[in-house]
Structure formats: C-alpha cells, structure tokens
Amino acid sequence: MQRTNPLRAIAIYCFAVALAASFALLRGCSQGTTGTSNNDKYEVFQNDDGKFVPQPLDVASSKTGSEVTITSSGWWAKDSYIHYGIKVLNPNGDLIARDVVIQISSYDEAGTLLSQDTDTISFIGPHVETGFAGTCGNGQKPASVTIEILGTTVWQDASGYVDPLFVTSVDEADKGYYRYEYTGGVTNNTGTYVSTAPICILLEDEDGNILAGYAGSTKRIKTDRTKDYQITINTAPEHAQVEVFAHWSTLNDNVNEQLDGGEDA
Length: 265
Fold this sequence. Notes:
The chain is mainly β. It is built from two helices and 14 strands; from the N terminus they run αββββββββββββββα.
C-alpha cells in the first residue's frame, strides 16, 4: 500500500478548495452579481434591463403632460431653518418631467409671510414617485409651511425609459444630540458618465409620514458603477425610518455634451 504524505494531502485539498471558489466566482460574474474593481474602488454591476441616457434639457417633447403632484410632505425647523421633505408623482406614463419648480413659503402664527423660496427637481421619470428635500428659510422659526408645485419647465419623451440612478444601500449612524450620518451607494445605470448625483434623505415616523428632509450629493460616477456617499446631518428630529433617493442633475447634461458620452473623470 502506498502511504500518502499528510502535508501533500493538505496541499492538494487547499488547491481543490481554491479552484472551486474560482469557478464559483466566474459563474457569479456571468450572472451579473456585484463585484469590486480594485483599480478605482468603484463597485461594478451588470444590469440586463438596459440603460437610459437622459436627453439634454433643450430636447423637448411635442406633448404636454399632466402636472406633477405632491403626494406627501413634512418639515422641521427647530434650528429656525426649514428642513423640508416631499414626495412627488409624475402621473404621465410616456413623459419625463424636467426642472419641476417648487415653492416653499413660511408663516408666523399670525399668518404673516416670513420667507418664500423656490427649488428645482431636475428629473422625474414616467409614472415615478420620488422623494425630494432641501433647506430654506431666513432664520425665523415658522409656525406653518406650505409647499406647492409651480410648474414643469420641459416635458421629454420617455421611450425606452429605465431608472438612470438608484440607491443601492442606506446605513444610518446616530451620532447623538440630533446628529446623524448616512452612508451607502448610488448606482449609475445611464450608460454614460455622471458628474454629480443629488441625494435626498427623508426622515419618517413609523407610519411613513415625513418629518424632515435633507439634501447631499455624490460625484463622479462612471457608467455601470456604484459610488459611495456620506452625508452628515447636524440637526434632525428623532424618527423611525429613512428613505433615500438619488436624482439626475441638469448639470450632467452639459458635462455629457462636453465629454460626448465619455467616462473620463
């Protein structure tokens, strides 16, 4: 009987395990699982649903859509500035709403106007409900706040639409004294370079009612990549749940025209 060297047997076993792991990894990549690119520290992903490159703002549809509506809203102003959050719905199945202008007005207890600000939602896809947030006001604590849609600047055809950006993960760290930190990733599914992606955070109670909203961003996302974001909020209410939304920015239209769809950072 031939006697097997124990060290040789262990070496053969380790090689077999490593080989099996390599085959599993290759099989996973072919199925579109998430991996990591070591050269630029961006996550790489594969989406078989196709891609959608937003058109420049000056490319308009011949059709006019039904106006975007606000489906829910909330605000918080303990520090005397308004941290508002809303959810908006584009009711049109064949049109994209571009540069939707909203107006935020604040009032004191007597109903006197304290501040009036406008903000712009750059992009809302067809039949999409998305969250939007911002900070405004003039440092006077309001008794009431109203938020309304003023109108949509441009309607664009939505043929072949796929969500261009989406949030892949959200982690919250309570830093104490009404301070929170949010981290996660935003995936670029446009098939082109994204110079900036606004991120909106909605803080909600256990029933999903919006308590406050905050905005941040992540930048320089190559196509088919997931880029990390980190947003710190220094004053925020206690809450039960969080929703995070990534937006296409009109600023990307100009960058993509200059790059001609390239990926140079």
